[in-house]
Amino acid sequence: MGWTPGVPEPEDPLRWGDKFPKGAAENLRNTQLRRNLRYATHKIRDKRNDRVAEMPDWEELRDAASAIKHQTMSNLPELLEEMERNVQARGGIVHWARDAKEANEIIHQILVEKQVDEVVKVKSMVTQEIGMNKYLADRGIKAWETDLAEMIVQLSEDMPSHIVVPAIHRNRAEIRAIFANRMDDAPADLSTDPRTLAMAARAHLRKKFLSAKVAISGSNMMIAESGTLTVFESEGNGRMCLTLPETLISVVGIEKMVPTFKDAEVFAQLLPRSATGERMNPYTTFWTGVTEGDGPQEFHLVLLDNGRSKALADEIGREALHCIRCGACMNVCPVYEHVGGHAYGSVYPGPIGAILTPQLTDSMDRHDPNSALPFASSLCGACYEACPVKIDIPTNLVRLRQRVTDANRGGIPDMWDVAMAATSPVMASGKAFDAAGRAAKLGRIVAGKKQRIGALPYPASMWTGARDIPAPPAQNFRQWWKKHEEEK
């Protein structure tokens, strides 16, 4: 099901609740959620299209990015070692974490050594993936989200529903209510004006920035040749976290890598346009190790595997690791637009999440909620057209569907198995298929003037209970072709 605000965070951020169909059905009944999602996704989509239209070499940039990612994945072990050497050469400390447990233990140990009970955070999907905030909270350390959308999610005890815009499912009135009820220092006259809400958040966070001794971040991409990390953001909170505290801990998935600065320049053009519809992010921060007298004087890099090495060895998983977390696929996806991110039951929702989450969690068993994610798509192809690194999401979803089906063959047949067995003789015979096509014209009578069939008796009601069937054409293709040949 979708996430219920106010309940404790899930133990596994990559797997919570029921399967996608149940979560989607629940969210489809939430008309306010659907209005919020439609407004926000269309707004971001339109901005992105405007910025892309300005780029005569957009397709060449996509090709270049895809090639760079292919090269990176092909040489990832060597690049990671190069990254480690260069970070250490500049005074940084590198930690390797096999899974979420190890990553959280490393982070917690550093914070215990620093004797702090609170930290500030840059928006980071990978810390969401490992459930870091909950892990630290259970041990008496508060991690303050400083990104506006992440702060909204945290204050409402919610979960993110989008990779780039975690609170995309909220509107201004809801945000105003969250601030008024959950923010200790919220102004008494708080309105729904965006500037007023932003200023309230800024005042709330300012003292956190100035007092925090440790900050935690992720990174949009690491640059192996120099040991450099980057954060692209639009609010300035990231810059505050990356420069003011004495100690900085960056937790980064091992796939978030490019070989050279020249490669990073390609993504610097693609990422902001794809993610937020901006020509460039207002705040783009690069840092390399420790610089005396400038910024944090202690830097820790935690390189996280958490299933990525296994995904790297898989053809589909390797392509999924090309993802730069721009969220463009979600903004064009008709399924995501209608059901939102919580229906996917993972911190990585939408089309790319439907590939990435099963790869990271090895979820092919039909009883695992994540096994339903490859089927959470209409396969319209919009996600592939929007992806700045040209991940072929539709094709990979079809291939994952086959894997799920193959992994669950045998046992007691379900209704889907029975239906496929019943139709296979018709599909295997040209004469039988032709007869079925002729019989289908009877559906025009059932459809009537509405030209659609809205309800059929069981077991066909399993389909019509959720969608209509268009009225069959008056003339099917075989009939048209036969007439066409006769008229030659």
Automatic annotation (TrEMBL):
<keyword id="KW-0411">Iron-sulfur</keyword>
<keyword id="KW-0479">Metal-binding</keyword>
<dbReference type="InterPro" id="IPR024185">
    <property type="entry name" value="FTHF_cligase-like_sf"/>
</dbReference>
<protein>
    <submittedName>
        <fullName>Iron-sulfur cluster-binding protein</fullName>
    </submittedName>
</protein>
<keyword id="KW-0249">Electron transport</keyword>
<dbReference type="GO" id="GO:0051539">
    <property type="term" value="F:4 iron, 4 sulfur cluster binding"/>
</dbReference>
<dbReference type="InterPro" id="IPR017900">
    <property type="entry name" value="4Fe4S_Fe_S_CS"/>
</dbReference>
<dbReference type="GO" id="GO:0046872">
    <property type="term" value="F:metal ion binding"/>
</dbReference>
<keyword id="KW-0813">Transport</keyword>
<keyword id="KW-0677">Repeat</keyword>
<dbReference type="InterPro" id="IPR009051">
    <property type="entry name" value="Helical_ferredxn"/>
</dbReference>
<keyword id="KW-0408">Iron</keyword>
<dbReference type="GO" id="GO:0006089">
    <property type="term" value="P:lactate metabolic process"/>
</dbReference>
<dbReference type="Pfam" id="PF13183">
    <property type="entry name" value="Fer4_8"/>
</dbReference>
<dbReference type="InterPro" id="IPR003741">
    <property type="entry name" value="LUD_dom"/>
</dbReference>
<dbReference type="InterPro" id="IPR017896">
    <property type="entry name" value="4Fe4S_Fe-S-bd"/>
</dbReference>
<feature type="domain" description="4Fe-4S ferredoxin-type">
    <location>
        <begin position="314"/>
        <end position="344"/>
    </location>
</feature>
<dbReference type="Pfam" id="PF02589">
    <property type="entry name" value="LUD_dom"/>
</dbReference>
<keyword id="KW-0004">4Fe-4S</keyword>
<dbReference type="InterPro" id="IPR004452">
    <property type="entry name" value="LutB/LldF"/>
</dbReference>
<dbReference type="InterPro" id="IPR037171">
    <property type="entry name" value="NagB/RpiA_transferase-like"/>
</dbReference>
